[in-house]
Design goal:
Belongs to the MurB family. Helices cover about 25% and strands about 25% of the residues. The chain has eight helices and 21 strands.
Length: about 325
């Protein structure tokens, strides 16, 4: 059995002047938008980038580290998350500011929607798509989030990060290794902030595009439900929701988990779902889609942690897909 309190005590002993917050056996269900999942052994919230560097340098290499954002695109398994979960706070990592005529600097805890609003205030076009993405800048950087024909890689200039040894790095856009919903940057890097570039635009036109994004999201997505956004990535040349619908999975339920009737690429917690229900539903949908059309859907929802005792989710093909 894992002992979060003992891990916390060991961590504190080597941290010295850490200014952030640390807690043992922290409930991850309070963080994720699905509102499910077991506890983190230790949840760490550093005060700023220097504090994060101090924390990372103090964590033994044999202790796993998991970085989470605002929990919008995250499914935490019912057995919880071993080791240290690092969550960057809005206070320390949420600032967004204009740094040149065409550039913005945004911390990785800044909500995507706030980045879009800051770009509007600065009269910078090219950021409207963030208005409809329910996540933070850190997640957008890691997964190359995009919508409405624009992706994060189209706006990023450089990314600041801290590695497992506490060393700071600055990565260029090319060094992020972007592809569709993917970055090949080392998983050991914790992104702290990024510089984005737009182009001068008419605020009225920018606002109109943001309004279009908001209207689309409110009319076709279950934004008032406990959901994590898009469940599966779009296959090459296709749409995930069309594959799910064609396989007869719109409204499909496993326990308290359901593929939304409104937008069938969204999983929702109807009120009493477990993480196991949600992951089993996703794998069931993947199998039905493969059986129906031959298409293998890949997860867009990030799944972390361990299953609770007695739980089994048999992944269709592999655990990573």
């Amino acid at each position: 059995m894992r002992d979060g309190a003992a891990l916390l005590a060991d961590l504190r002993a080597g941290l010295g002047a850490f200014r952030g917050r640390l807690s043992a056996d922290a409930g991850m269900d309070k963080i994720t938008w699905f509102r499910v999942g077991g506890p983190a052994d230790v949840l760490a919230m550093p005060a700023d980038e220097d504090d994060l560097a101090l924390l990372m340098a103090a964590i033994p290499r044999n202790v796993p580290v998991t970085v989470v954002g605002i929990g919008s695109n995250l499914l935490v398994r019912d057995g919880g998350v071993p080791g240290i979960v690092v969550r960057l706070s809005a206070k320390g990592f949420g600032a967004v500011e204009r740094v040149s005529e065409t550039r913005l600097s945004a911390g990785t805890a800044c909500p995507d929607k706030r980045l879009a609003a800051a770009a509007l205030d600065a009269g910078l076009a090219g950021f409207h798509f963030y208005h409809g993405i329910p996540g933070s800048v850190g997640g957008a950087l890691r997964m190359n989030a995009g919508a409405n024909g624009t992706e994060t890689c189209d706006r990023v200039v450089e990314v600041h990060a801290v590695d497992r040894e506490g060393h700071k790095h600055v990565l260029s856009q090319q060094e992020m290794g972007y592809a569709y919903r993917h970055s090949s940057a080392s998983k050991d890097l914790v992104f702290t902030r990024a510089i984005f570039e737009g182009e001068p635009g008419d605020p009225a036109e920018i606002q109109a595009r943001m309004d279009e994004v908001q209207h689309h999201r409110e009319t076709v997505q279950p934004v008032k439900e406990k959901t994590g956004g898009s469940t599966f990535k779009n296959p090459d040349g296709g749409s995930a929701w069309k594959e799910v619908d064609a396989a007869g999975c719109r409204g499909l339920m496993v326990g308290g988990a359901q593929m939304s009737e409104m937008h069938c690429n969204f999983m929702i917690n109807t009120g009493h779902a477990t993480a196991c229900d949600l992951e089993t539903l996703g794998e069931t949908v993947r199998k039905r889609v493969r059986d129906t059309s031959g298409t293998t859907l890949q997860w867009e929802i990030k799944r972390i942690g361990e299953f609770a005792d007695g739980q089994v989710v048999r992944p269709f093909l592999n655990a990573d897909g």
